[in-house]
Write a structure and sequence with these properties.
By secondary structure, this protein is mainly β. The protein is built from one helix and eleven strands; from the N terminus they run βββββββββαββ. 3% of the residues lie in helices and 47% in strands.
Length: 133
């Protein structure tokens, strides 16, 4: 059984930093991507960033490029999201997600597939990030 456990959320002032961590267990996948989504009250869940299983390739939404960094070490099932220069609009519940890319042959070539929540197979319970103005 796949389980994703997030940690690291909290309250920070505008311009501050937070680091989120997500550890996956029970994956048993040879090719996968780990990602982060976020959902603010009254809004749809939106893509933030993702990283391949090897850690070699990363993807970001334009809204976080240059401020957030996603990372993962090969052989480890933990993904980190370093968030700097946080803004009030970053306030949301952040969810870790994993997709089995062997089931999605176009995942790496179509950004709309990478950014779609329905493209991901497993989800964590979420961690709250609040940025005060």
């Amino acid at each position: 059984q796949v389980q994703l456990v997030e940690s690291g959320g909290g309250l920070v002032q505008t311009g501050g930093s937070l680091s989120l961590s997500c550890t996956a267990s029970g994956l048993g996948l040879s090719s996968y991507v780990m990602g982060w989504f976020r959902q603010a009250p009254g809004k749809e869940r939106e893509f933030v960033a993702a990283v391949t299983w090897s850690g070699a390739t990363t993807y970001y939404d334009d809204s976080v490029k240059g401020r957030f960094t996603i990372s993962k070490n090969i052989g480890q099932n933990t993904v980190l999201l370093q968030m700097n220069s946080l803004k009030p609009e970053d306030t949301a519940v952040y969810y870790c997600a994993v997709t089995d890319t062997q089931r999605r042959p176009f995942f790496y070539v179509q950004s709309r597939i990478r950014a779609a929540a329905q493209s991901y197979d497993y989800w964590g319970q979420g961690t709250q990030v609040t940025v005060s103005s």
